[in-house]
Amino acid sequence: MSDAPVLIRGGRVVDPSRRLDQTLDVLLRDGVVAKVDERIPPPKGCEVVDAAGLVVAPGFVDLHTHLREPGYEYKETIASGTQAAAAGGFTTVCAMANTDPVADDAPTVSFVVRRARETGVVRVLPVGAVSKGLKGVELAEIGSMKAEGIVALSDDGKPVADAGLLRRALEYASMFDLPVVVHEEDPALVRGGVMNEGWVSTRLGLAGWPAAAEATMVARDVQIAALAGARLHVAHVSTRESLDAIRNARRKGVSVSCEATPHHLTLTDEEVARSGYDTRFKMNPPLRSEADRQALVAALADGTIDCVATDHAPHHADEKALEFADAPFGVTGLETALPVLVDALLAPKHLSLMRLVEVLSMAPARLFGLPYGTLADGAPGDVVLFSTTRSTAVTPDGFLSKSRNSPWIARTLKGRVERTFVGGAEVWSKAGGLAAPRS
Amino acid sequence: MTRRTDDAADLAADRSHVFSRKDLLDIESITEDDVRLVLDTAESMREINQRSIKKVPTLRGKLVANLFFESSTRTRFSFEIAERRLSADSIAFTAAASSVTKGETLLDTAKNLMAMSPDAIVLRHSRSGAPHLLARELPCAVINAGDGTHEHPTQALLDALTIRRAKGRLAGLKVAICGDIANSRVARSNVGLLGKMGAAVTLCGPKTLLPAEIERTGAIVVTRMEEALEDADVVMILRVQKERGGGIGFPSDREYYDIFGLTPVRRKLAKKDAIVMHPGPMNRGVEIDSAVADGPDSVILDQVENGVAVRMAVLYLLIGASGDDE
Questions:
Q1: How far is it, in rounded angstroms, from Cα A385 to Cα A159?
Q2: Is B124 a catalytic residue?
Q3: Active-site residue identified among A15, A105, A311, A343
């Protein structure tokens, strides 16, 4: 690469891959981490970045991003979504398959890869569909999609309701060493539900979606994973009982991992009432009870939950300006993940800084077998600089995402992303915005 | 002005408590004092309704838009009569289907309407929270005339007026609300209001039609009619809402009637002087036997009558007190 070397000086380097937490310099050269050491002398022609007072960490990896392209470019594009990622400190995002057309064959996956190369500002790794058209009937062309670069399989947005299909998907995917990511909801139990079933849904007269609709599917699917001898990854876990099912399965040696979103870790279904049916609090799975939320936080700290994933799900303002039952599910999350977690989990000491960095970088990278999420010598030069003391004011006009369906609008959160580097070059900074595209 | 309208204008002018809210969205967000104010004002409105000329100029020059996105007979007529008796101008917008299938969104419809400067919008909608959406976006008063399975605040107020007139009080009464609780906005509003005013509410229905954690309302929740009805001062029977999926909660109308129907025999379990209520429309022979519905304890038609007075009171309190001529 032709970029000048970058010396990131005097930051608090937190690298979970080496359990490193120390004030050090980081030198990026030729697209990789060249050296992490005390007082590195600046090489000739290098750019020096003062990181005093900031955390220097491996760039964040999001296993669960909806970039909406192709098909829903009015909500988000690969360009705008990756810009939002950069602003949130994410250097790698895994693009979900529920586009139009669905990413269920090689040409669509190859389109995403090409568009990402042409217009993306961070790394984009496609996720292929489990079933053709996300219909849950026939397997998608998993082998040919693997050849185009998919890193996982998922029908996300929909459950794989057919247990036999899930078994075949797990068995088939294991030949390609691809994890299968499951979105857990039993359609017969959800039945039109638009928010968590409980006291709040009862008060608001909104159709409830019981926690058991998720946990029953998790309990089923860990058994199927055991049967298939394959790797299962549970997307956006939201209930206590799902965590119990996952712990149980792990004790028996089943290969199951899971993620939780910043919103499920920090918000509850009370928000729907407090906001007067604001659709910015409508997502799938729905915000759960305070007991569920606390169980998620504890599980993230103790390792039951492997990583954080945003489930960034942009929707146009027109689509969200509907009656609660009619608005689509989903909230944006790339640009707010770090401040949300700093504000709600790090600052009150529910999570250590090391663990916070780990769940955003190393842990997700390892789950999908990616070489990112580490500042080891020679690792890709993906780095984020953030402050744990400065605040982020979340405003509707402050997003790089095309959409602004964020539940945190009008809140000021402790924690702020300052700079993001991908492949050794700065792609975004708080002070300067997006870097000019590299030729 | 005639002498009579002076009386009408004096109605609430004496009240120390002013209804200081922009909208009436639900019972949950109003206070005990608000409830009393509406009921007391409604008593004065009842007096107007008994005159030979049932009209006062209180809301002259005010425009009320009635937006009914869901079918309604009683509530719509009741609001329209209330508006006319207070001399408001009113327009009606009726749509058979929900806004989404019609192409124009609810918010767009309402904003277009807003360009015509109504003082209040009365909204009936199949989606819970629809009035909250409008209230947030529009400067005029929004009155919830029933939203999905959420609330129907004017129904609870007219029920309270009916009970208070029959029993002289609300506090300390035992009220049994029976039927399809899960799908009932009337139940939610009534539980909230009666609880606020110190009545003891028992909810009864098939387990399949009781919503999650409903006992947190403070009501006693049972599944046997015999338990609910014992010693009740007020028996309120709810309609099985088949259009909202209530029908999948039990095997047949016949079985429902056998187990949950208010029959003359079951009626006897309540107090001798108990009143029987139903918000309508009734499924005769399913949740209530005609002999009870049309019997001497039934106040079902009083409910309808009181509905007009309550809606006059609500309109007056929301948009009448700030007129230019005061």
A1: 37
A2: yes
A3: A311
ipTM: 0.89
> Are A354 and A21 spatial neighbours (Cβ–Cβ below 8 Å)?
yes
- Interface mutation vs chain B, best among A204, A275, A279, most B CBs within 10 Å: A204
**B236-260: per-residue pLDDT in tens?**
999 998 777 777 889 999 999 999 9
Q: Which pair of structure tokens corresponds to residue B72? A: 């309604």
Beta-carbon separation of A202 and B125 below 8 A: no
Is B17 a catalytic site residue?
no
Residues of B in contact with A197 (CB under 8 A): 212
Find chain B residues with C-beta within 8 A of A201's C-beta. 211-212
Q: Are A363 and A116 in contact (CB under 8 A)?
A: no
pLDDT tens for each residue of A386-406: 999 999 999 999 999 999 999
A193 shares contact with chain B (CB less than 8 Å): no
So what's the pLDDT on residue B71?
A: 85
Q: Do B98 and A326 touch (CB under 8 A)?
A: yes
Cβ contact (<8 Å) for B133 and A323?
yes
Query: What SS3 class is residue A35?
Result: strand
Are B28 and A203 within 8 A, CB to CB?
A: yes
Q: What residue of B is the nearest CA neighbor of A276? A: B132
Closest CA to A300 of A248, A352, A361, A372: A352
Token pair 């992490």 is at which residue?
A: A36
Cα A206 to Cα A195: distance, rounded to the nearest angstrom: 7
E strand or H helix at A220: helix A212-228
Residues of B in contact with A318 (CB under 8 A): 105
Chain A / chain B CB contacts < 8 angstroms: 75
Chain A residues within an 8 Å CB radius of B132: 276-277
Residue A149: count other Cβ atoms within 10 Å of its Cβ.
Answer: 16
Weakest mean pLDDT among A76-90, A142-156, A259-273, B241-255: B241-255
Q: Does residue A189 belong to the interface with chain B, where contact is any CB pair within 8 Å?
A: no
Structure tokens at A119: 């217009």
The whole-angstrom separation of Cα B68 and Cα A215 is 40
- Would strands A383-393 and A55-58 be described as parallel, antiparallel, or unpaired? antiparallel
Q: Which residues of A touch B128 (CB under 8 A)?
A: 204-206, 277, 323-325
For the purposes of burial, counting CB atoms within 10 Å of the CB of B171, is it exposed (0-12), middle (13-18) or buried (19 or more)?
exposed
Residues of chain B under the 50 pLDDT cut:
1-9, 12-16, 97-100, 323-326
Q: What is the DSSP letter of A328?
A: P
The arrangement of strands across the sheet holding B174-178 comes to B220-222, B200-204, B174-178, B234-237, B275-277
Provide φ and ψ at B275, rounded to 5°: -105, 150
Interstrand relation of A256-260 and A232-234 (parallel, antiparallel or unpaired)? parallel
Q: Do A322 and B151 touch (CB under 8 A)?
A: no
Rounded CA separation A84/A69 (Å): 14
pLDDT value of residue B2: 40
pLDDT tens-place string over residues A281-311: 999 999 999 999 999 999 999 999 999 999 9
What are the backbone angles phi and psi of residue A367, rounded to the nearest 5°?
Answer: -60, -40
